[in-house]
Amino acid sequence: MNDIICVANSRIASSEINMARVVKGGLIQATLCEPATSPVEKIKQAMIDKHVDLIGQAAEKGVQVLCMQELFYGPYFCAEQDAKWYNLTEPIPDGPTTKLMQELAKKYGMVMVVPMYEEDLTGVYYNSAAVIDADGSYLGKFRKIHIPHCAPGFWEKFYFRPGNMGYPIFDTAAGKVGVYICYDRHFPEGARCLGLNGAEIVFNPSATVAGLSEYLWKLEQPAHAVANQYYVGAINRPGWEEPWRIGEFYGQSYFCDPRGQIMEEAPRDGDAIIVADLDLDAIREVRNTWQFFRDRRPETYDEIVDL
C-alpha cells in the first residue's frame, strides 16, 4: 500500500503545546481496493479491512480525532441507480461496523467520525456519520441534510432520504465536533448553525470529482472556517472508480484553521493519512479579533427562510 503520511508542522513551540489545548487531528482518503463489479459484501469487507489498517497507522502517528471519507466502506455507488447497493446499509449504532469502530476507538483512545450508509427502517436509508468518543462510547450521528440528484452520476435521491436530525455538536474527548457531508458544504446556512451550536472542529467527508466544483474545494470550506472561526477537516476520496468513470476523485484532503489557512493537505492521488495539530485555544483568539458572532443581526435575516 502506497500510504502517504502528511504531518503538519505546528506553529507552537513544544513547550507551549503542553500548556495549550492542542489535539492531533487525522483524515483518511483511500482508493477503492476491490472492483465495483465485485459482490457488494466483498467490496464492503475489503474496504473495512483496509481502513482498519489505516486507522492503526493513524494511531501510531498519535491521532486523537479521526474522520474517513464519505461512504467509506464502498465505492461512490450513486454513479448509477441500482437497488443492489441497498445491501450496504446497516443500522447505526447497532450495526457491525459501528461496533467494530467502537472497539478500535477504545483500543487507540481515538475519537472517530465514521461515514456510513444507514438503515433506519427497511427502505428508509440515510447518508450518515457515526461519532464515537475516545472511550469507545457512541455519541450520536449526523445525517446528510442536502441531497443532490443530477447528471452525470450523482443519483443520490435514489439512495438517501434527506437528513432530519439538524446540526448536532458532539462533545468529545478531543473537543466539540460537528459533521457536514459532501454536498452540504455548498450551503453556508448549515455551516453557520454548526458554528453557533459550538463546533470547534467540523469534518466534511466527501466524494467529489474533477470538473465544475473542483475550484470550490479549497474555497468554500476555508470560507466556512473563516466565517465561523473553527477548524475544518475536508476529506475527499482519490482515483477513478470503474465501471462508471464519472470523473476523477481528486483527493487533496486537508485541514484548515479558523483563519481559513490550509495547514496540511494530501496529494491528488493515492491513499493518505493527513495529520495536523489543532490548537483549539486559537479559536478564542480569532473570535476575539473577528467578532462575527457578536455583530450578527439575526432579526434581519428572515428573508433567508421566507424566500
Describe the structure in your own words.
By secondary structure, the chain is of the alpha/beta class. The chain has helices at 14-17, 40-60, 96-108, 188-196, 220-228, 281-289, 302-306, and strands at residues 4-7, 22-29, 65-68, 111-121, 124-132, 138-143, 149-150, 154-155, 169-172, 175-179, 201-206, 231-236, 238-239, 249-250, 254-256, 262-265, 272-279. The strands form four sheets. Strands 1-17-2-3-4-5-6 form a seven-stranded mixed beta sheet. A six-stranded mixed beta sheet has the order 9-10-11-12-15-16, with helices on one face. Strands 7-8 form a two-stranded antiparallel sheet. The termini are far apart.
Structure characteristics:
single chain; 307 residues; alpha/beta; Nitrilase/N-carbamoyl-D-aminoacid amidohydrolase; seven-stranded mixed β-sheet; six-stranded mixed β-sheet; globular
